Amino acid sequence: MSMTRRVMAVLILSAVAAAAAWAQDISPASGGRELDPLGRLSEGSRYQIELLLDSARVAGLPTAPLESKALEGISKRVDGRRIVAAVRMVFRSLRDARSVLGAAATPDELNAAASALRVGVTRAELAHLTQMRREKSVTIPLVVLSDLITRGVPRDTASQTILQLWQRGAADDDFLGLWRGVERDIVSGTDPGVALLNRAREVPPRAPSSQPEAGSRPEGTENRNS
Amino acid sequence: MTEDDVKTLDPYVQWIVAEARRPVSVDDAARHRLLEALRAEPQPTRRRLDWLVEPRRFVLPPLATAALAAGLVGIGVISGLLINRDGQQADQRPADVADTPRLPGSIASRAVKFVLIAPQAARVAVVGDFNGWDVSASPMTTQGKDGTWTIFLPLHPGLHTYSFVLDGTHFMPDPAAPLAPDDGYGRQSSVVLVGGSSL
User: Fold this and answer.
1) What ipTM does the predicted assembly reach?
2) Which of A186, A191, A132, A116 lies closest to A164, judged by CA?
3) Under 8 Å between Cβ of A139 and A129
4) Backbone region of residue B167 per phi and psi (left: phi > 0; alpha: psi in -120 to 50; beta: other values)
């Protein structure tokens, strides 16, 4: 084989390999991921996280939130013990969320409910929200609820307001519009709780798809936003 | 093998070498008959597509070889742009973006645009559960001097947690998206819901 042919063969193989690798990298959720991203943890930390992942699999819980939490800690260069603690907290909250939402909950709903539990929403409040779901996903209301509490809205106020809007048939767009307004008011200096109550009054009433179940309305939500 | 080498061999082997080297005399008439017989053989017919499989010798200068390789890379890149790993054509509509307060819960497209205004940053990246929180996986780009950093990412439908990383070390949530709870790392993240599966 002449030198020119050898060079040409090497170039062609390199070009094909580069193009193939590039094409692989543009697909969703693939960018730059290592083959063993947990390998950067110490043996002990990794072992404990693997145990939690196994426990989640056995319990039928999604493992992606646990892996994500571990990778987030690695990326933020948090020490292994804190990563294990954070992953364990996510595992427990997912397990609690599953016990409240039931087996029919989607992974997104479970994830959102677990986040809500971690910011202080009680299982009873979560149960109320779930009882009124009526074929609708509770993901967006729970995401907004967690955000509001994280931004400083008192938990009781946030939970009861979201529950009431949900009960009145509020749609995802209503919750997102509410979140947008409250966030803007908080940035402008309004007290978070006041901002939520004010903005909740602007949400137009919608007819719920069906009447709520007897006793499903949480007490103390009646006149909060009217 | 030289003559000196032959002289060092066994006499019997020397005889074999001598015999092998002795020219063979061929009768001229016999040679003539052989050539005539060969000429009388039918010529092989040249099939129409034989030229496709015939070996050829060609030489490409290095510049032409490099141009050929570049062309192949271009073909691969264009193919990669049009077809993703799942064998599906990438959606042409970037549509809803994570920089708007509205969570893109009802969009059909999986392309999500992340935007951050950070004029002081030299580098900005987005990390999240969609790229294994790898700081080097999704660098954002900026055009002009207004410090607006953007990136389009194709995301699977579902709830995603993410964060921006400024200059490789400083994590910050998206100011235009709902917050995810702080789970003990001390730095909050954001959430985005990509429509399709759960709504």
Assistant:
1) 0.74
2) A132
3) no
4) left
Interface of B with A in 97-116 (CB under 8 A): 101-103, 105-106, 110
CA-CA distance, A198 to A182, in Å (whole number)? 8
Please write the tens of the pLDDT for every residue from B139-178: 999 987 789 999 999 998 889 999 999 999 999 999 999 9
Task: Pull the structure tokens for residue B36.
Answer: 């005539």
Residue B7 burial (CB < 10 Å; 0-12/13-18/19+)? exposed
CB contact under 8 A, B66 and A11: yes
Please give the Cα distance from B163 to B170 (Å, whole number): 10
Quick one: how far is CA A31 from the chain centroid?
21
- Integer Cα distance of A223 and A225 in angstroms: 6
Give A130-148 pLDDT, tens digit per residue. Answer: 887 777 889 999 999 999 9
Residue A24: both structure tokens together: 């692989």
| Number of C-beta neighbours around residue A187 at 10 A | 11
Which chain B residues contact residue A24 at CB under 8 A?
Answer: 85
Chain B residues with CB-CB distance to A6 below 8 A: none
Residue B150 φ then ψ, to 5° = -140, 160
User: Given the structure tokens 């939690």, which residue do they identify?
Assistant: A52
pTM of the model: 0.63
A115 neighbors A69 (Cβ within 8 angstroms): no
Asked whether A93 and A126 are in contact (CB, 8 A), the reply is no
SS3 per residue for A144-204? HHHHHHHCCCCHHHHHHHHHHHHHCCCCHHHHHHHHHHHHHHHHHCCCHHHHHHHHHHCCC
